[in-house]
Write a structure and sequence with these properties.
This is RING-type E3 ubiquitin transferase. It catalyses: S-ubiquitinyl-[E2 ubiquitin-conjugating enzyme]-L-cysteine + [acceptor protein]-L-lysine = [E2 ubiquitin-conjugating enzyme]-L-cysteine + N(6)-ubiquitinyl-[acceptor protein]-L-lysine. It is an enzyme of class 2 (transferase). Its EC number is 2.3.2.27. Pathway: Protein modification; protein ubiquitination. It is globular, with a radius of gyration of 23 Å. The protein folds into 2 domains: 173 residues, no CATH class; 152 residues, Herpes Virus-1, CATH 3.30.40.10. β3 and β4 form a beta hairpin. The longest helix has 33 residues. It is α+β, with helices and mostly antiparallel strands. The chain has a 4-stranded antiparallel sheet with strand order 1-2-3-4, covered by helices on one side. A 3-stranded antiparallel sheet has the order 6-5-7. About 9% of the residues have low confidence. 52% of the residues lie in helices and 10% in strands.
């Protein structure tokens, strides 16, 4: 696996040690398996002796006790560390860009004193580094899963594991902060671009595309992997307005998400019932941890101005209506009516 060497070189070039996928360790585990499978473990077992959670994949007929007990748990731990680090760094970067007033002023002064160039240039550079970090880890994970399937003559374990990883929110390509960084890059590079005068906004591998009233966001910094983000709300079937990302990874308009979760815009998604399901994948409990995609909203408001203004007027009327009903109900409850 030649990419493993490139991956290790990339990680070694970093000034500080970053969370990474232990590709050599995982490759050695796969080598021990060979082509002969040992007897199956107890299917009810879900934890190893040292307390590490094991991931049991049931979609393939061939199970390997060695890999089920060592490969997948180790991969899960590595992925969790990588995603946690990435989300934390990306969140701080987004907050820096959205800082206002004195905080924004002091951040710019600090950047100049540290020789980081302009505030914008440092944001662009750090954002790109984080996106590359996310994509290169995603490629490494894909290659390891492909290697697993090749050794075990199975084509289902890799996709099944990725599905479980997504449900555990450790699939880095599904991170809402990765989508925010892609939008942030275009926001910092492009200004005053209207969808009526361009079919796409493109910058250094980042691309916002307009096709038959459908908008999509993509990122391709490596030939072997491409990130495509669908920006059509599955509820209203329009370009997402005031977008939020559910924990399952799907992006909805905030108003549509509240409607699907059976809560008012005043209460918000945090008060959604855990049994409420995503309208697209039907997974439950996806609303309370939803993240507001501010940078994506800024990008769409700049590039789809006519649509954004029209939708803003419609949403304002509905929000005022819901707020009025909410406070009327609160008054009735207080008065005991």
């Amino acid at each position: 696996m030649k990419f493993c060497k490139k991956y290790e070189e990339y990680m070694q070039q970093k000034e500080q040690k970053l969370p990474e996928v232990a590709c050599k360790k995982l490759k050695n585990i796969l080598k021990k398996c060979g082509l002969a499978f040992q007897s199956q473990r107890d299917p009810e077992s879900n934890s190893s002796a040292d307390g590490v959670v094991e991931i049991k994949i049931t979609s393939c007929h061939n199970h390997c006790p060695v890999c089920d007990g060592a490969f997948f748990p180790s991969l899960v731990n590595d992925m969790s560390a990588v995603v946690s680090y990435f989300n934390e760094r990306a969140k701080k970067l987004i907050e820096l860009h959205q800082a206002a007033g004195l905080k924004k002023y002091f951040l710019r002064i600090k950047g100049k004193m540290q020789g980081e160039g302009t505030h914008v240039s440092s944001l662009i550079e750090e954002g790109k580094e984080l996106v590359v970090y996310a994509l290169i880890n995603a490629i490494m994970i894909q290659k390891l899963l492909k290697k697993y399937d090749k050794i075990h003559h199975c084509c289902k374990q890799g996709p099944a594991f990725k599905s479980q990883a997504q449900s555990m929110q450790i699939e880095i390509l599904q991170s809402p902060w990765l989508r925010e960084l892609v939008a942030l890059h275009i926001n910092l590079r492009e200004t005053n671009v209207s969808s009526s005068t361009a079919e796409a906004i493109s910058s250094e591998g980042y691309r916002l595309t307009f096709n038959d009233d459908k908008v999509s966001l993509s990122c391709q910094l490596f030939d072997s992997i491409r990130l495509d983000i669908e920006l059509t709300c599955p509820v209203c079937l329009e370009t997402v307005f005031d977008p939020v990302s559910l924990t399952c990874g799907h992006i909805l308009c905030k108003m549509c998400a509240c409607s699907a979760a059976s809560v008012s815009i005043v209460d918000g998604l945090k008060l959604a019932d855990p049994t409420e399901k995503c309208p697209l994948c039907r997974k439950a409990g996806v609303y309370q941890g939803a993240i507001h995609l501010t940078e994506l909203g800024i990008l769409l408001s700049r590039s789809c101005r006519e649509y954004w203004e029209k939708r803003l007027q419609i949403e304002r009327v509905e929000r005022v209506k819901q707020a009025k009903e909410y406070w009327e109900n609160q008054c009735r409850a207080f008065m005991g009516i």
